[in-house]
Amino acid sequence: MVVLLILAILLAIAIPTFLGVTKSANDRAAQSNLDSALVNAKSIFQTNNQSYLLTTNATYPTPSGVMANSLYGVVPNLTFTTAAVSSGNAQSASAVSVAVSTDGTGLALAEQAKGTGNCWFIVDNSSGTAASPETWGLATGSTTSGPITTGTWYGEAKAATTCSAAAIPAYSSGSVVWSQGAFPNL
């Protein structure tokens, strides 16, 4: 009986710790996927005369679709799409949503971490000026700070139902935490 009691106590301590480590690892995996995609997207940006707008074609009629296909060509272990992604849908756990701003100076990437439901974002704005909110699908009059200003922005939306690079949350919405230089702390 004493041995069973000790085992029960140890399991009561170990299981929550294990689950917490697993969720943190899933968040880190999503962040790593986005970092890898951004490095390759910036390479494409440099070779394309400092623009994320790539030439469209019949197969990929949108700049976001062409970028998603181009990224898949250099990072084949990830799935890239222009649609919203979620960790529970038919796409692989490493599905990345891609959106190119209408002026070609910005790129947004999003992935939802498996198990946590956290949606992670990277938004890269290279224009030197703030993009208009409409460039990223935000409502007219949305704040012009945060992820629509110049620089690389990292964001997290906790317990999101889906994740879409085409509709990044507004900086002031309160539904997402944004920072420059690195992902927000878990």
Describe this structure in words.
The protein is elongated, with a radius of gyration of 19 Å. It has helices at residues 2-47, 63-74; strands spanning 79-81, 95-100, 106-112, 119-125, 151-157, 177-180. It is α+β, with helices and mostly antiparallel strands and 186 residues long. Helix 1 (2-47) crosses helix 2. It has one domain (2-180). Strand 3 (106-112) and strand 4 form a beta hairpin. It has a six-stranded mixed beta sheet, covered by helices on one side. The protein is built from two helices and six strands.
- In helices, the fraction of residues equals 25-40%
Content of β-strand = 15-25%
The number of domains is: 1
Radius of gyration: 19 Å
> Overall 3D geometry?
elongated
Helix/strand/pairing category: alpha+beta
Terminal CA distance reads 40 Å
Number of strands: 6
Q: Which spans have pLDDT < 50 for at least 5 consecutive residues?
A: none
Give the SSE string.
Answer: HHEEEEEE
Main sheet specs: 6 strands, mixed
Strand order of the largest sheet: 1-2-3-4-5-6
Number of helices: 2
The oligomerization state is single chain
Instruction: Summarize model confidence as the mean pLDDT.
Output: 80
